[in-house]
Amino acid sequence: MNKQREKFLNGVCPLYDLEIVNTPPILAVTDPVIAGKHIGITILVTRFGLSPIKEIEHIQHRFEQNGIDVKGAILNAAKKKAS
Predict the structure, then answer these.
(1) At the N or C end, where does the chain have fewer CB atoms within 10 A?
(2) HSE-CB of 1 using CA atoms within 13 angstroms
(3) What whole-number distance in Å separates Cα of residue 55 and Cα of residue 8?
(4) Residue 29 to residue 10: CA distance in whole angstroms
């Protein structure tokens, strides 16, 4: 995270109860790890049918290697089935 973003977050955090920071995919760039060190809670967003479990485990491991505890996940685009 660059200094400008860090300064922005430090400025807005006292003004709000909750801030949501969206980052690019962790397997594509290092931004999520850098941002995760400045953010209170990290939650993964995965896509139903497109995010293999091995990839999710790899992402979890990458965060853990950097001292970031993932608190949960959002399963996006889930499809309701009768079964």
Answers:
(1) C
(2) 19
(3) 32
(4) 23
Q: Which residues 6+ apart lie within 8 Å of 17 measured at CB?
A: none
Whether 1 contacts 35, CB under 8 Å: yes
31 φ, ψ (degrees, to nearest 5): -50, -45
Confidence of residue 83 (pLDDT cuts 50, 70, 90): low
Which amino acid, 20? I
Is residue 71 within 8 A of residue 41, CB to CB? The reply is yes
Instruction: From 36, 46, 47, 38, select the one nearest 12 (Cα to Cα).
Output: 38
